[in-house]
Specification:
Layout (H helix, E strand, L loop, with lengths): L5 E5 L5 E6 H7 L3 E10 L5 E7 L10 E2 L2 E3 L7 H13 L5 E12 L5 E12 L12 E8 H10 L8 H12 L1
Parallel strand pairs: 3-8
Antiparallel strand pairs: 1-2, 3-4, 3-6, 4-5, 4-9, 7-8
Length: 175
């Protein structure tokens, strides 16, 4: 994370209220816009692509999460930002569809706070080979929706705090 990255501050209804430096927003728990992407491969019996966050991430290192998540820049719409970050993190280019949004707050051991209105995006791929960015992604895997829900129920500490809510919004579009 660089000092020059900025996020869009929003109220709980996702109405913009300004911008802030990304780390400041996370230190102060300022409500800001984010997105979570789920990529599916329907030829693999609708498997979902998960990523394990890089071990050097500023929060939630090593936890499993949706395919890609980040924040739009002040001059970006959600879908364009999602396509940009999907390319940067996972090396994937595909069409993304918006399926909803939710608000959550998560506090981390290092004192940072996620206070986000998180937009959920879904895309599909036919190819399962791609080049991930090791600065962002430690590992990745394909998993079915029932297997993922079972793992989250049994071992919630291995997953990011936003994954379950994002998955609930995405679920009807993943099938």
């Amino acid at each position: 994370m660089t000092a020059t990255e900025h996020v869009i501050l929003v109220d709980k209804n996702d109405q913009p209220t300004g911008t802030a430096e990304k780390l400041q927003a996370h230190r102060e728990g300022l409500c800001h816009r984010a997105f979570s992407i789920f990529i599916v491969h329907k030829e693999l019996d609708t498997k979902i692509l998960l990523q394990q966050r890089a071990l050097t991430k500023y929060h939630s290192p090593g936890l499993w999460t949706n395919t890609c998540c980040s924040h739009p820049r002040p001059d970006e719409d959600i879908v364009s930002a999602g396509q940009r970050r999907l390319r940067e993190e996972m090396g994937i280019e595909t069409v993304l569809k918006w399926v909803g949004r939710f608000h959550y707050i998560a506090h981390f051991e290092n004192g940072l706070i996620e206070n986000e209105v998180d937009h959920v995006l879904i895309g599909e791929v036919a190819d399962t080979t791609f080049q991930v960015n090791p600065k962002e992604v430690h590992d990745y895997r394909w998993i079915s929706l029932p297997e993922l829900k079972n793992e989250i129920a049994l071992l919630p500490q291995k997953f990011t705090p936003w994954l379950n809510q994002a998955l609930s919004l995405a679920e009807r579009s993943l099938l």
